[in-house]
Amino acid sequence: MLDIKLLRDNPDLVRQALEKRGESAPLDQIMSLDEQRRQFLHEMETLRAQRNEVSKQLGNMADKPPQLIADMRQLGERITSIESEICRVESELEDLLLRLPNIPASDVPVGKDSEDNITVRSWGEPAGFSFTPLPHWELGEKLGIIDFQRGVKLSGSRFYILKGAGAHLQRALIAFMLDLHTKEHGYTEIYPPFMVKRECMLGSGNLPKFADNLYHDEEDGLWFVPTAEVPLTNLHRDEILPPGTLPLHYVAYTACFRREKMAAGKDTRGIKRGHQFDKVELYKFTEPEASNQELDKLLRDAEDVCQRLGIPYRVVQLCTGDLGFAAVKAFDIEMWAPGCGEWLEVSSCSDCGDFQARRASIRYRPEAKAKPSFVHTLNGSGLALPRVVIAILENYQQADGSIKVPEAIKPYMDTDIINKS
């Protein structure tokens, strides 16, 4: 959530920043509601002072004048009416503020969409093949490790079954990534719930704007997580962290659930995009001045996974028009998939500034007895499945249709090659 003081003091700055995102926001309506709220609060304080004065007068009188009693009643009714107006205005104001995206950092390239993103570096060279590489959906079916028909039979479109070595490969990748991030990168592993309360979705920035893309259990009021970012953000909701606590680095595996509403025919083949997928998520709580440095480290930690798997990738800085809702700055990591013939996003590493911390009320004390300040939060996939599975199948395929197992995950697979099951 944006600081209302920023909107009051620099409305043009906010307006211009949102225009760079390609967003139109009702800033005039927000400022009008904010002014109404402050006027109502001032009037209520004045009336309460008057009521206290009249109450003192009545307390000193043996005979209560009817007019003073009537005045007290009128003051009370007016105060009740103003309290109701304040609740209405605050509710409208909060709803509008919760829908405003974060402001891009000054060094984020200005652009309309993904076409304006900038490739900042790449690693590895796409492998040459003596044969035409197949896409993963053909490889998976021929090897008997992906079953699309039974996935649809069980749950409908955009679901699939991983079978035998396919399921083992996914499990091995999750274990490998968790071990790497905890043992070598210094993250603390969390196993969070896969369903959360509404306030968790509000705190992370998923609600109210993205409600249509989320799965919701109406009866119990629980929301299925679209990413582990949601529960990790809320681990310290409504807390003031003591001096010396920061930074905090967490890593978590969760299944992720998204409705994935999109144009018909877009990314429908294979396992690239589904309503349920697995992901290992990296998350950081930091002091504001360490934010940029921590983002660089977060990005390098995610890149390390790609390098150890030996898969070519590129790092892309997102332009203003392609930034995530909560991000001030973000970089995507895209792995090369030769069978699909495209770069697949396997991680998006974002610095959210104090945007989520304001929504979730997460603060820290820089030193003892110091005034609490909002933390900065950062997140990134480390990495997202099943796109890593796609990249492995397509990059490590052999002429006979088998798949070589990357060196890094051989200890987790107990085999060097995946053959037809």
Overview of the molecule:
The protein has an eight-stranded mixed sheet with strand order 1-11-12-13-16-10-9-4. The longest helix is centred in the first third of the chain and has 33 residues, at 27-59. The chain starts with a helix and ends with a strand. It contains 13 helices and 18 strands. The chain is an alpha+beta fold and 421 residues long. 37% of the residues are buried. Strand 6 and strand 7 form a beta hairpin.
Write the layout of secondary structure elements.
Layout: H1 4-9, H2 11-21, H3 27-59, H4 66-98, E1 118-123, H5 136-143, E2 146-147, H6 148-155, E3 161-162, H7 165-183, E4 188-190, E5 195-197, H8 198-204, E6 216-217, E7 222-224, H9 229-233, E8 239-241, E9 248-257, E10 276-286, H10 291-309, E11 313-317, E12 329-337, E13 342-351, H11 355-360, E14 362-364, E15 373-374, E16 376-384, H12 387-395, E17 403-404, H13 410-413, E18 417-418
Parallel strand pairs: 4-9, 8-14
Antiparallel strand pairs: 1-11, 2-3, 5-7, 6-7, 9-10, 10-16, 11-12, 12-13, 13-16, 14-15, 17-18
